[in-house]
Amino acid sequence: MLNSVIAGLSSGGGYALLGLCVVLTYRLVAVVNFAMAAVGAMGAFTMVSLTDDGLNVWPALFLGVAVSAALSGVLGALLIRWFGEHNERTKAAVTVAVYVAVMAVGLRLFGATSTGARRFPAPFDGAVFRIGDVVVSWAVVVSLAFAVAITVGVEVMLRRTLVGLRLQALSERPGTAQVVGISAPRLATAVWVAIGALTALVIILVAPRLGGDFSTLGKLIVTALAVAMVGGFRNLPLTLGGGLLLGCLEGVSASLSEVREYRGVIPFLVILVLLWWRSRHEVWDTAHSR
Amino acid sequence: MKRSLVRRPAAAVLALAFTLAATACAADDGSDGGSTKGAIKVGSINGITGLFQTPEVPQAVKAVFDEVNAAGGINGRKLELISKDDAMNPQRSTENEVELVQSKGVVALVGSSSAVDCGVNRAAYKTAKIVSIPAVGVDPACFNSPDIAPVNPGPFKLLTAMLYYASETLHHDKVCLYYTTLPGSGGGISDAIKEWETLTGKQLAAKDTAVGEGDPTPHLIAAKQAGCQAVLYNAQVGPWFAQAQTQGMQNVDFIMGANSYTDANAKLVPSGMRAYVGTEWQPYTDTTLPGNGRWAELMDKRGIQRTAFSQGAVMAADVFVQVLKGMKGDITRKTVTEAFKKMSPIEYPMVGSPWVFGPGDKHNPVQGSRFVKAVDGKWQVLPEGFIVPGKK
């Protein structure tokens, strides 16, 4: 059982990173971005296509990240310009449409599961230590460290810096923020660009473990949204914990023959129960306040 | 306002008249496949867009038909291929079937390569009394329908061959199965395992048919703990082998299904890992193998991609042409169906057993597999020839 938990924990860092990207987007620009992973996958595949063509890994990485940043920036600018006054549901619906489009284009450009599978550079594949039968690689340590750095870094930035304060104002009261002199469209577009770049880095980091083809990487948004739900699309430390929990649950359910067939469902069921447990008082209070 | 109300019934009558006229025209044109003159229309439903893409398949079938037409056709009649893309969408697949079988009046379906065609259209093929010879049979319905006989072994006969290869050729006692099961495929997988157990008297050391997407590490740890010497696997290649390498599983023989037999996947196997693939036809990467020479030459001449799927396409077209050439009298849907149900087996060098349609309620004529191994980013053909379970 311990082996399974450790094995699952190793993927938890990757899940946490994906969930953190969703929560960041929601907290900073108030959009549930369904296209996030697909946009990141565009950058990841741009990078791997360039390295396959012989380009050095660093310029390829820069160009790949730039592609995702640009795509995300265009999506953000589009949402700000045409859907700025719409509610969150409409904006989320727009990102669903963009997700479908990016997936279709990505499949066309980079191929389907077997023909389009690529070998991503995995510089962190070396073993760090062994627990029982499980070899823990540097990739696991790097994912976890990256996730913790984002969680702590973003919390500090939002609470302690002027940019953070402006970003919070932007996400919670965009109209008021603009009245007090914050250049809302410019700041929001910059956030979209930064999140696009960050997502590309995360996708490139998790690709050797969780993907390898465009379709699988783009569909990681499902896991990312489930993890983000644990943090209520707001709480970064809880999101980090949710990612690790999802990984562990996957590991444990793969090791138990009785529930193995439902491996894909069990983590999500547990998350659903957790959400219900956490929100039961809120529902009660809300009902009374009406 | 008044005028439009008067016009509506008139328009409806006109539309009805048009529909009836169109139906009548279609019947005259041979919508039941009864035409005895002009081109012999042949249908095909292929995945050109979507998740399961085989654009080379209809091109390869057409290449064979063009060859036949250039040599005078069949009894002086040309072969005309009408290929439709279903994009792995069941609704579009049904629409394609209606158009091909009912409107175009095709005599048979040859070289289909869709992941959903057999399942959604099998009943319609039975009603229309039409035969389908898919180039690539994917779902279980392709192998248990009275009117469909693919030219590939399919995932279940291939699984039996892979198990047989692991236990009888590689001589492993601890053979394990880590598979992704598509909806409706569980029974086929169980039957394939039972067939292997009956032939060899052996049992699987571990079985997990719920391998999905996501991190494969928990499955690999389970395989390590079960002491698996050979692991049969059918899902994503990259993450599986990257993590197997990290977990130190260099002494395990990983045997994958034909879906993994692509140039892209050969490059994903890290050096030091032992990866095999069971192929459905003669491995396409070696053009000197029996049957591959003509196929490779034809593909190169027409600028068509050389893949295992285009091998299936050429084989489906070849067996169709051979049966048609043996027919006497009219070539209609009815006579073509009769000819396939009564045909003699065809020895085709690209596969491990003779191909035949025959009168049965289900058809899985091709058996056996030839194995390749990943060496330095390429697939190397192994010398054993076709491994047909139970046949020494």
UniProtKB/TrEMBL annotation, chain A:
<feature type="transmembrane region" description="Helical">
    <location>
        <begin position="261"/>
        <end position="277"/>
    </location>
</feature>
<feature type="transmembrane region" description="Helical">
    <location>
        <begin position="92"/>
        <end position="115"/>
    </location>
</feature>
<keyword id="KW-0812">Transmembrane</keyword>
<dbReference type="InterPro" id="IPR001851">
    <property type="entry name" value="ABC_transp_permease"/>
</dbReference>
<feature type="transmembrane region" description="Helical">
    <location>
        <begin position="6"/>
        <end position="24"/>
    </location>
</feature>
<comment type="similarity">
    <text>Belongs to the binding-protein-dependent transport system permease family. LivHM subfamily.</text>
</comment>
<keyword id="KW-0029">Amino-acid transport</keyword>
<keyword id="KW-1003">Cell membrane</keyword>
<dbReference type="InterPro" id="IPR052157">
    <property type="entry name" value="BCAA_transport_permease"/>
</dbReference>
<dbReference type="GO" id="GO:0006865">
    <property type="term" value="P:amino acid transport"/>
</dbReference>
<dbReference type="GO" id="GO:0005886">
    <property type="term" value="C:plasma membrane"/>
</dbReference>
<feature type="transmembrane region" description="Helical">
    <location>
        <begin position="31"/>
        <end position="51"/>
    </location>
</feature>
<protein>
    <submittedName>
        <fullName>Branched-chain amino acid ABC transporter permease</fullName>
    </submittedName>
</protein>
<keyword id="KW-1133">Transmembrane helix</keyword>
<dbReference type="GO" id="GO:0022857">
    <property type="term" value="F:transmembrane transporter activity"/>
</dbReference>
<feature type="transmembrane region" description="Helical">
    <location>
        <begin position="220"/>
        <end position="249"/>
    </location>
</feature>
<keyword id="KW-0813">Transport</keyword>
<feature type="transmembrane region" description="Helical">
    <location>
        <begin position="187"/>
        <end position="208"/>
    </location>
</feature>
<feature type="transmembrane region" description="Helical">
    <location>
        <begin position="57"/>
        <end position="80"/>
    </location>
</feature>
<keyword id="KW-0472">Membrane</keyword>
<dbReference type="Pfam" id="PF02653">
    <property type="entry name" value="BPD_transp_2"/>
</dbReference>
<feature type="transmembrane region" description="Helical">
    <location>
        <begin position="135"/>
        <end position="158"/>
    </location>
</feature>
From TrEMBL, chain B:
<keyword id="KW-0732">Signal</keyword>
<feature type="signal peptide">
    <location>
        <begin position="1"/>
        <end position="26"/>
    </location>
</feature>
<dbReference type="Pfam" id="PF13458">
    <property type="entry name" value="Peripla_BP_6"/>
</dbReference>
<protein>
    <recommendedName>
        <fullName>Leucine-binding protein domain-containing protein</fullName>
    </recommendedName>
</protein>
<comment type="similarity">
    <text>Belongs to the leucine-binding protein family.</text>
</comment>
<dbReference type="InterPro" id="IPR028081">
    <property type="entry name" value="Leu-bd"/>
</dbReference>
<dbReference type="InterPro" id="IPR028082">
    <property type="entry name" value="Peripla_BP_I"/>
</dbReference>
<feature type="domain" description="Leucine-binding protein">
    <location>
        <begin position="40"/>
        <end position="377"/>
    </location>
</feature>
